[in-house]
Amino acid sequence: MPPKPRRIWSLDDLSDYVNEILCHHEQLETGCFQLTRRTLYRNDRPCGIYFCLHGPRQVRLSAIWASDRNTLFFYRATGERYHTVRLTERPGIDLLDEPTGESAREPAAA
Questions:
Q1: pTM of the prediction?
Q2: Which residue in 9, 49, 55, 72 is a FRET match for 91, CA 20 to 30 A apart?
Q3: Is 23 left (phi over 0), alpha (psi -120 to 50) or beta?
Q4: Which has more confidence, 96 or 94?
Q5: If pLDDT is split at 50, 70 and 90, which confidence band does 63 have?
Q6: What is the largest CA-CA distance in the chain?
Q7: Domain definitions of the chain by residue range
């Protein structure tokens, strides 16, 4: 049974929800695989979070939370988008204080 939608209040709640959706889709046990996250930037301003689930046999599943749309986009290991979830409420996340310290900056336009 797919995970039920729920209220997401924090970055940890958002990470847990993404982990559940990605694991459910690939029939993996939730919590057994590492989920990493990186803040995404556009024009040197944080605009979302990239999540990557490192599954078995080097399988990588991903999701992106677009903060301006308050939407999660889920991707298969092939890169194909398979699921979109529009969150009803914006999580209380300050992207500038993202705790992992990792970031992925979009290259500057020439």
A1: 0.79
A2: 55
A3: alpha
A4: 94
A5: very high
A6: 47
A7: 11-92
